[in-house]
Amino acid sequence: QVHLVESGGGLVQAGGSLRLSCAASGGTFSGYAMGWFRQAPGKEREFVAAISWPGGSTIYTDSVKGRFAIFRDNAKNTVYLQMNSLKPEDTGVYYCAAEPYRSSWYGSARDPNEYDYWGQGTQVTVSS
């Protein structure tokens, strides 16, 4: 079992920045690809970004490209999401998730059903 705990959310003005962290415990971080998803009120959970194991490849949804960066520190069992130039439409609960890294990762990373473990989420609110 991998236990994931997100932190770093909060209230920020449009144009500001936040860095989310997701710490893994209770099992091995090794061999897991990691993803960030978000869910706005009344909307479905959507893919934001993902990073392969051990971290050489990343994927982003189009709306965050150039503004967000996902990276991981495997020694600390932690994955991060650096969010810059935040917009009100970035508001939502942000979840990190873990899936065993596979050769088919690039094609599956955007699908939340592929992930085995999820954190409890952290709220991000961007005011206009």
| N-to-C CA distance | 40 Å
Radius of gyration: 14 Å
- Report the mean per-residue pLDDT as an integer: 96
> Count of DSSP E strands?
11
Counted by DSSP, the helix tally is 1
How would you sum up the global shape? globular
| Class based on secondary structure composition and strand pairing | mainly beta
Order of helices and strands: EEEEEEEEEHEE
Low-confidence stretches: none
The biggest sheet, with number of strands, parallel, antiparallel or mixed sense and barrel status, is: 7 strands, mixed
> In which range does the helix fraction lie?
under 10%
**How much beta, percentage-wise?**
over 45%
What does this structure look like?
With 128 residues, the protein is mainly beta. The chain is 3% helix and 49% strand. The chain is built from 1 helix and 11 strands, in the order βββββββββαββ. The strands form 2 sheets. Strands 2, 4, 5, 6, 9, 10 and 11 form a 7-stranded mixed sheet that branches. A hairpin with a 4-residue loop joins strand 7 and strand 8 (78-83). The mean pLDDT is 96.
Summarize the structure.
This protein has 128 residues and is mainly β.
Salient structural properties:
single chain, 128 residues, mainly beta, seven-stranded mixed sheet, four-stranded antiparallel sheet, 1 helix, 11 strands, 49% strand
Secondary structure layout:
Elements (H helix, E strand, L loop, with lengths): L2 E5 L2 E4 L4 E8 L6 E8 L6 E6 L6 E3 L7 E6 L4 E6 L8 E9 L4 H4 L8 E2 L3 E6 L1
